[in-house]
Predict the structure.
Amino acid sequence: MIRTALKSPSILVAIRIGLGGLAFSLGNLMFAESLPVAEFTLIVLVMAVSQIAMCTGPLGADTLVNRTTGIPAPATWLRVLANCALVAVLLAGAAGYYYDFSISSSSILFIICFGCGMNQFASAVFQSKQDFRKSQWIRQIHNGIFLLAAAATVWLGFGTALPAILAIAAGYLLVPYLVWGRLTSESTQSDPLSKPSEIKWDDGYSIVANTLATILLATLERLSIPNLLGEEELATFAVLAAISGAPFKILQTGVRFTLLPRLNVTRNKGEVRHILARESIISGAATFASCIAVLIVTPIIIEYFFAEKYSLGTGLIIAALFGGIGKVLSSFTTVITTSLGAKLDLQKLNYWSWISLAVALAAAIAGSTYGLTGLVYGVSLGWYVYSLAGLALSLKYILD
């Protein structure tokens, strides 16, 4: 069983992603320990917005490229570049207005968002060729940059977030610049085996709308806590997510990362069932083990490193586990439709993603009257609604 698990593509991807997730979690914990609450929450908000840019910057091209073969044509690269710039402007402007960022912080956020979007598409090109190692390296190196920025902040004794987000912006822009140079040169090659292919943008609107809803759902706690509960609770949640939420985010990403291209190359229902059954058993076991580990490890970390600054009760930790399980479930039930679904199925999944987001937002507002724990449970409800919707839409691709 253990040998089979270690050979599972999703688990192998999850292990590699786990290294990046560990770097990001450690970076967050280092920032939380060394910076004042107000400065730490600035970094939390910047990274939350950058996650939105990473998933929506290409405007669906990162998913569409997994539904085609070959290196994207030069015109596609130019369109993605323009898409990333547009999304970065909108997000930086919205964040600056909503969270009262300074001009300098908003400008740096634009650079980070722009780099994240370009990096996402470059990673997706390698993912479409099932070159998972390169794809993950491109995507996960940002977590290493984040950790280095945190380490420099602690080592040099900075009391403000500005030097850190400047370093993050530089790194987030440098990586896609280097990778894009290589990939765009490949798109002009005349070798028939690497002939440039045009992306079919027809399904892009439904995909990007669905992606936007799901990433808003994934970052809803961070985006809503400042106005519902205050920045101190946002800092507490960021510490909670760095410890208790990290394993589930890794599993969720690992499942989607490998299943999307693997399901895309088959239309045989028996093979689809075999892939899903194998991955669900292994990932289910990993999810259960993660729950046990989180329950044991989280109180220890808080007691020894953050006892005087942050407090995480058992009820709050269990709420985080409830939400984490919902995220992993959603990755299984929605990736089938994303990979195999017709345009109408993608549109339906899109509608349900926004319904799930609305449910999560309403439940979060209602739950916030019970504090951070209630808000976390409220957002988690949206993930379970989304999981059930994805299951209903995917059944026809599984059952005979």
